[in-house]
Amino acid sequence: MLSVLIPVYNYDVRGLVNTLHDQLMSAQISFEIICIDDCSKAEIGTINSEIQQLAHTSYHISSSNKGRVATRHTLAAQASFDWLLFLDADVLPTSDAFVSSYLAYLTSDYDAIYGGFAYNKEAPQTEFLLRWTYGRSKEQVKADIRNKKPYKITISANFLIKQSVFKNINSKITYKGYGYDNYFGSLLKTEKSNIFHIDNEVFHLGLESNASYLNKVEQSVDTLLKLDNQGLINTTENSLVVVFRTIKQWKLNVLFSWVFKKFKGRFTSNLLSKKPSMLMLQLYKLSYICYQDSNS
Are the C-beta atoms of 209 and 127 separated by less than 8 Å? Predict the structure, then answer.
C-alpha cells in the first residue's frame, strides 16, 4: 500500500524511522521503509543499519555519492507499492497522526500531496539562525495559502506521490546538484499533475550553519539560472525567477549586478549576524542571479 523512501547522507535516521514504523504498524497496512545511504561516513552507516531489525525496513549503502536526484530515482525503482512517501533524513513528524493523515489520500484523485514544513519555535544558536529564520518565514506556510499557488512551494523533504508520476517527472531531471525542488514543481505544473497541500508538517531538524546555507543559496540560484537559460522552467511559479525576468526585460539587471558586486560584503555581514534580514536575503539572491547572468 505505501512505500516510505528516505535518502540519507551523514545523518542519524533512527529516530525518524522508529517514529514512522510505530505509526505504520498501528495503521495495520502493508508498507515498507527503504533508506538509501548516499555514501555517508562509515560510522553513520553503522549506526543507521540498526533499523534493519525493524519489520519491512531496509537500509542500503551506495558505493559512491550519487546525489539526491539519482538516489530518489533508485528508491522509487526499488519501491513495491503504488504510493511513495518521500522524507528527508533530517526531519521528524510533528504529529502522531502523520502517517494516517497521508493514508486518507491514497484513494484520492490527486497525483501528489505535500504535507509542509515546520520549525521549532525556539531560536537556535546564532550559527544556525539564517536557515531557521528563512524556514520560518518562507517555508512554514499553511496549506490553504500553499494551495493558492500549488506548484510554488513543493518541498521534497515531505511529500506523497504516485510512483508512476514520480518516475515520469524525476526522469526528466538529469543533473546532479542542489536546488531542483523548483524544477520538480515546474515539471509537475507542465505535466498538469493534480497536486494538493495539507497541514501534515515535519520539523526540519538538520539546520546548516549560516555560511553553509548561504553557499547553498548561491548553488540554488545558479541552478535556477541554468534552468531558466535552457528554457526548462517556463511554467515556474518561483518568485525569484519571475522578478528576475521582469528586471531583465526592463534592462535593470546590470544595475542589480553592480549592487551585488558593490554590497556583497554588507549583505553577507548581515546574513551571518544575530539578526539576519529576510529582505536582505531576497536582495542578495536577486542581485546575485543578475550578477551571475551578466558574467556568464
Answer: yes
Enter the pTM of the model. 0.96
Closest by alpha carbon to 187, among 202, 172, 209? 172
Please state whether 231 falls in left (phi above 0), alpha (psi between -120 and 50) or beta.
Answer: left
**pLDDT of 177 above 80:** no
Burial 190-228 (b: 16+ CB within 10 A, else e): beebebbbbebbbbbeebbbbeebbeebbebbbbbbbbb
Strand arrangement of the beta sheet that strand 91-93 belongs to: 91-93, 202-204, 117-118
Please state the domain extents for the chain.
Answer: 2-116+153-206, 212-294
Task: Name residue 113's beta-bridge partners.
Answer: 160, 196
Cβ atoms of 216 and 134 closer than 8 Å: no
Read off the DSSP letter of residue 207: P
Which of 232, 108, 90, 95 minimizes the C-alpha distance to 161?
108
CA 132 to CA 127: how far, in whole Å? 10
Mean pLDDT of 200-224: 96
Residue-wise pLDDT tens digits, 136-167: 999 999 999 999 999 999 999 999 999 999 99
- Quote the CATH superfamily of domain 2-116+153-206: Spore Coat Polysaccharide Biosynthesis Protein SpsA; Chain A (3.90.550.10)
Work out the angle between the directed axes of helices 239-249 and 278-294 (0-180°, nearest 10).
Answer: 50
